[in-house]
Inverse folding.
């Protein structure tokens, strides 16, 4: 599954991290992002309508690869898969969750913030990892320092990243992409300004 996840994440320099309330806001948002060149999206399971949103996106925006984020339990993995999620993202990492993802044969991006956590996930077969929360955990300097002792691991940093910071992360050899929400500003979402979202997505798609 590591190779599958690597192939998914290598398609875009930025994975938008989206918190939506249901299909009615998720579908036009996803279409705007895809129009700008960002075809890998993470829908966080932080709202009651998140799973319905994933179902709608899997059906109505087939050109996008939809991941389920903020997955905390094995049961949420099953629910996200049933809704149509193509990969799973967690803010942290536990053996139970990692083994559940392997058992259900779905690409899993576990969150880590230390070398020890990264090594544990690698022992369980996960070599592409989410570095979270990226900025509070040490940022570019910390992630760069992991490159020499852990050259076999690749990261998707997420947390506190904006367009300028994204450039610095993407310049690191052990970073495959970054995750963030700056591409979907609240003001644009509130007014349905999808043109602005598409333009920001184009800028993000051009970061690498």
């Amino acid at each position: 599954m590591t190779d599958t996840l690597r192939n998914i994440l290598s398609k875009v320099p930025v994975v938008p991290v989206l918190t939506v309330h249901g299909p009615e806001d998720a579908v036009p948002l996803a279409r705007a992002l895809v129009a700008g060149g960002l075809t890998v999206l993470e829908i966080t399971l932080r709202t009651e309508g998140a799973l319905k949103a994933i179902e709608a996106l899997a059906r109505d925006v087939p050109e996008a690869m939809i991941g389920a984020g903020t997955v905390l339990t094995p049961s949420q993995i099953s629910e996200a898969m049933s809704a149509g999620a193509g990969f799973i993202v967690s803010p942290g990492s536990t053996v139970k969750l990692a083994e559940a993802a392997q058992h259900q044969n779905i690409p899993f991006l576990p969150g880590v913030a230390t070398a020890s956590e990264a090594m544990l996930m690698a022992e369980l077969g996960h070599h592409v990892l989410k570095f979270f929360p990226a900025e509070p955990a040490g940022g570019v300097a910390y992630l760069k320092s992991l490159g020499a002792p852990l050259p076999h691991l690749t990261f998707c940093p997420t947390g506190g990243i904006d367009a300028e910071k994204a450039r610095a992360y993407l310049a690191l050899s052990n970073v495959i992409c970054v995750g963030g929400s700056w591409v979907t500003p609240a003001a644009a979402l509130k007014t349905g300004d999808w043109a602005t979202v598409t333009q920001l997505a184009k800028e993000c798609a051009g970061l690498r």
Observations:
- The chain has one domain: 2-203.
- The chain has a mean pLDDT of 97.
- The first helix runs from residue 2 to 9.
